[in-house]
Design goal:
Elements (H helix, E strand, L loop, with lengths): L6 H23 L8 H19 L4 H15 L2 H13 L3 H28 L1
Helix pairs in contact: 1-2, 1-3, 2-3, 2-5, 4-5
Length: 122
Amino acid sequence: MGPDAFMPVILVGLGGFFGAILRYLVSGMVARIAEFPTGTLIVNVIGSTTLSIFTFSSVPDSTMYFVNTGLLGSFTTFSTFAYETFKLLEEGENMYFILNILLNVLLCLVGVVVGYIVVNLI
């Protein structure tokens, strides 16, 4: 394997490094609304929208490795979403449990559609 074979790994690693920092900063800046995990929702919507913009546009593979796999892979928070959703159920916060699932799924899908529309307008 030549040095070029390691470039995707390096790009994913660098993207992951920056994505984790961004996630920490963004989710930390967003206050919880009552028991609702707002920071995770915001991160997931931003990540879904950004991922769709890069996926639907014609960017080089190196950009896809850095942004989609690395940066957005560590920025978005499905495992956190799953844990926080379970905790809401466990704590008897049934309304927030359902709201969290609906908002994360629906708004992230809207984010994908927005990204698709943005790319097709360019």
